[in-house]
Amino acid sequence: QTRHACLVTGCAGFVGSHLTDSLLAMGYPVVGVDIRPRNEAHNLSGAFGNPLFHYLERDITHHEVLASASALCGDIRYIFHLAAVVMVAFSMEHPELTMATNYTATKALHEEAVQAGAKAFLFAGSAAEYGDDPRLPLKEEYATDATIHNSPYGRSKYLSSSLMQNSGVGCSLRFFNIFGPRQDPSSPYSGVVSKFITQAVDGKDLTIFGDGGQTRDFIYVSDVVQSYLIAAGIVPAPSTGVAAPLSGIYNVGTGNSISVRELADQVVANTGKGSNVLFATPRAGDIYHSRADVSRFNSCTGFQAVVPFAEGLDRTISWM
Ligand code: UD2
User: Fold this and answer.
1) What is the pLDDT of residues 115-142, one digit of tens each?
2) 242: alpha, beta or left, given left = phi > 0 and alpha = psi -120 to 50?
């Protein structure tokens, strides 16, 4: 069976590299686009040895990304668009760059994809599109222009998701807090799971911003990859057995949440180095509770996250 080629933008990142590896393992040719030079794309060490993989070092805001990618391996039918400014704090200081990267470039790539008659276009949406909406669990329709005042990041993701919805072509998966191996722990704004694990493995103290009662819906990266494959129509939906690309907006989370305090305690217990858990002032703009209503994606496809939180944590700790 012929496998159509895929484009993965942001392929050298945390989620993009896992998605790339899975597509290659299933025999799909992949053109990976990323702004990182090849020698800094450490997450792709497996992919680089694969003859099905083509790497294109490219800023996503440059023109005709799809045309350049197609020149490397012919007709591209599946587009996974993950390249983005990913840090909320950075977006506050660079609102224009954030909009250009996360919205304008998405619009341009989407237009190219529509013209080329692509089979599936998957956009990486975000829980940030809900701002600090206190209504839990968060339903897709809650995100509106009024919810996205928090950050240029949230605004740019919201506008791109709306583009998927309003054009009738393309799908936005709104991810909640993703964690797992390859998540970069090195910046002050890195995900809390990767930060806590690195600190605990090094025997350092963990710092909770606020009282630790804040909760998040943490989803393990392999579940996220599976959600992509189902939404693209590469893998059949568990409930129907039919493989077909989706359009519209879907939350992707577990539907459960745990507190940052519980997370810190579990990490310390599982790493066994006796780190202390300290408390500091809350982070500016932090939201308190976040949890996905996962019923829309679940009722369309039967998708459910399958990796229990504790197991995801163990796998991530083993990887460090
Ligand atoms: C996540 C996303 C972000 C955006 C946002 C939308 C990640 C890494 N970031 O931000 O891109 O989509 O959701 O709402 O997934 N914390 C500590 N100590 C630390 C680090 C963090 O207590 O050393 C707390 C932090 O104050 C927050 C919680 O842990 O209450 C989660 O922080 P995060 O940066 O992992 O993710 P979040 O939800 O702020």
Assistant:
1) 999 999 999 999 999 998 999 999 999 9
2) beta
Nearest CA to ligand 1 atom 7: 191
Residue that has been written with the tokens 């459960």 in this structure = 256
SS3 call for 117: coil
Q: What's the residue count for the chain?
A: 320
Residue 54 pairs with which residues in a beta bridge?
31
Domains and CATH numbers, the chain: 5-180+218-255+289-307 (3.40.50.720)
Query: Does residue 283 line the site of ligand 1, with CB under 6 A?
Result: yes
Place of tokens 């809390």: 192
Rounded CA Rg of the chain:
19
- Contact predicate 194/184, CB 8 Å: yes
Contact criterion met (CB below 8 Å) for 156 and 163: no
**Ligand 1, atom 27: nearest CA belongs to which residue?**
286
User: pLDDT tens across 194-238, in order?
Assistant: 999 999 999 999 999 999 999 999 999 999 999 999 999 999 999
